[in-house]
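dude i think i finally got it to work??
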Amino acid sequence: MSEVNNKEKDLEEKILEEDNNTDVDNTEEDIVDGEVTQATEDEEETEKAKKGFFGKEKKKDKKDIQIDELTDKYKRTMAEFDNFRKRTEKEKSAMYEVGARDVIEKILPVVDNFERGLKTVAEEEKDNPFVDGMDKIYKQLMKTLEDMDVKPIEALDKEFDPAFHNAVMHVDDENVGENVIVEEFQKGYMYRNTVVRHSMVKVAN
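look at this
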């Protein structure tokens, strides 16, 4: 009988020990679960904070919008002004070219008259002070034209070129090559890279 009682006591003690161990395990699990839950909540709060700071784009202030608009307007105005300046410079240059050509065309007949007059001077009269003075004025005039980039067009004994020469007569001459200028009636001139007046010439066939 005593043995049966002892066995029952041992069984009860074992059951109590198992219950105690179960309670300890459950407590540890509760602690771990609590820590995990807290960690999860902290992570969620951190993510929310990040989204609030970086996720949403900050709305521009009215002053920033106005600054952007004024900056864009300033850039457009400067671009338009630069285009206007370039266009004005081209127009001024073109007007200068037209004005210069007009003046040169009016001076050329004076040059022609100087050359015609000097050609009629006899050899014995070239030492005459008047003739010498006219010759010096002619040379000064030609030097002035040269300084303005005005140059005579070469014609005599050159091949005829319609871009520079104006053929008013043709002649058959076996001693001269075909399409060669044999006589110049009026001298042509160029201003820079453009023809002011074509040379008036006679061309051999």
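The longest strand covers residues 165-171.
im so relieved honestly
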